[in-house]
Specification:
Distance between the termini: 102 Å
Number of helices: 10
Oligomer: single chain
Order of helices and strands: HHHEEEHEHHEHHEEEHEEEHEE
Strand order of the largest sheet: 6-5-4-1-12-13
Mean pLDDT: 82
Number of strands: 13
Shape: elongated
Length: 392
């Protein structure tokens, strides 16, 4: 059959929809039934191919659109994260530039007499510095923060003197600044978080100077979840720098750049601090497994480092605001103490405290320093210009 004849047969079939090959051959006796059968099969195959192609095209278009939507969302999230991180990095660079313009005193070098073979470790954790608490069981304000910090310095120096220590290591384990993501946190704040950053840096400077008057000082920081700038908390170094604790650490480094105070840079999430022959791992404590019974989380963390050939002797952390000193780890209390939420809603009553450790080549011994009562202690000075919101 010629192409022209095949076209004619196709037109006959299309002009008579619903008729099979037998009825078509009776209606058009000049065309053999076998021809109708062959052309009907061809039309059926073409119709099926057209249908398949159309479905495939729709599917491919849908997949393409989905990929484009996911790419746009990923690019948006990446841009937002990069902008926030760049903002914090630039803010810290501006802080550094500003402080570098200040004429600081000539380098302060202090000679310390030869002393014993013990080190003192002060674990500073969970200040929540700008929080205001006014409950029957606890009161807290920047003024009380200054008193409790001075008491901590006094008690730690006494322990250092009693143990003939040769150095003091200050390890901060995060949440120096309180969150402002909840309405209750905003309304119970002594000032905003930027002002609180400078307030904490100022109090920390006085605290370190009190200790540095008698002992060499080393300082290490890890960062907490409540001090983060963004609503989400990341564990990689890049996201962790988006944190007010990070700003405070770098401000202090600049403040003491003309002294022999040693600042030990770390990862941010966690840091191994060498004290005598001991390796102390510092972290904030908001990781999974570090809840009310942190033993399992601690042992997993020790095993994780052991795989890299690092033998951890002790862990210190905070986060839950409740002191717990054990054989292989210690959780710090908070400087702020209990508030209405933790005490009344959660049923987890605590008081203000911090931990101090005596470390030598053979042992690590921890002591809880009760800071709830602070009568008789003068507060560290806070510039009143910082507290223009809710001075207390």
């Amino acid at each position: 059959m010629s192409a022209e004849e095949c076209v004619d047969v196709r037109e006959i079939i299309l002009d008579n929809p619903g008729l099979g090959r037998r009825l078509l051959s009776r209606k058009y006796p000049d065309v053999p039934e076998s021809v109708f059968r062959r052309v009907l099969r061809q039309l059926a195959e073409e119709a099926m191919l057209d249908e398949v192609n159309e479905e495939d095209i729709v599917k491919l278009q849908r997949q393409k659109q989905g990929a484009m939507d996911r790419a746009r969302l990923a690019n948006k999230l990446t841009r937002d994260d990069n902008r926030k991180a760049n903002c914090v990095i630039e803010l810290n660079e501006r802080f550094e530039e500003l402080f570098n313009r200040i004429d600081l005193p000539a380098k302060i070098h202090r000679e310390f007499p030869p002393q014993g073979k013990k080190s003192i470790v002060i674990n500073v954790s969970d200040l929540h510095a700008q929080e205001l608490i006014n409950e029957s069981f606890n009161q807290y304000s920047p003024t009380i923060l200054g008193k409790r910090f001075r008491k901590l310095a006094h008690k730690a120096l006494k322990i250092a003197n009693d143990n003939d220590a040769s150095e003091v290591v200050v390890i901060a384990t995060g949440d120096l600044i309180n969150s402002d993501r909840r309405l209750s946190e905003i309304t119970s704040a002594a000032t905003n978080r930027t002002r609180a950053t400078f307030m904490v840096a100022s109090i920390f400077e006085q605290f370190i100077n009190d200790i540095y008057a008698d002992y060499p000082v080393r300082v290490a920081f890890v960062f907490g979840n409540e001090s983060r700038v963004d609503s989400e908390f990341g564990f990689d170094d890049f996201l962790l720098s988006d944190n007010f604790d990070y700003s405070i650490y770098n401000i202090l480094k600049i403040m003491f750049r003309n002294s022999d105070v040693v600042f030990e840079d770390g990862r941010g999430a966690e840091q191994v601090v060498n004290v005598r022959t001991k390796k102390i791992l510092a972290l904030h404590g908001n990781e999974k497994g570090f809840g009310q019974n942190p033993t399992n989380g601690v042992m997993k963390k020790i095993a994780q480092y052991a795989l890299d050939g690092i033998v951890i002797d002790y862990l210190i952390f905070g986060h839950l605001h409740g002191c717990l000193i054990s054989d292989r780890f210690a959780r710090s209390g908070s400087v702020c103490g209990g508030n209405a939420y933790s005490t009344l809603d959660l049923g987890f009553p605590t008081s203000a405290s911090q931990n101090v450790f005596v470390v030598d080549s053979e042992s690590i011994n921890g002591t809880r320093i009760d800071l709830q009562q602070h009568d008789g202690y003068e507060p560290y000075h806070v510039d009143p210009n910082i507290l223009k919101w809710n001075p207390a």
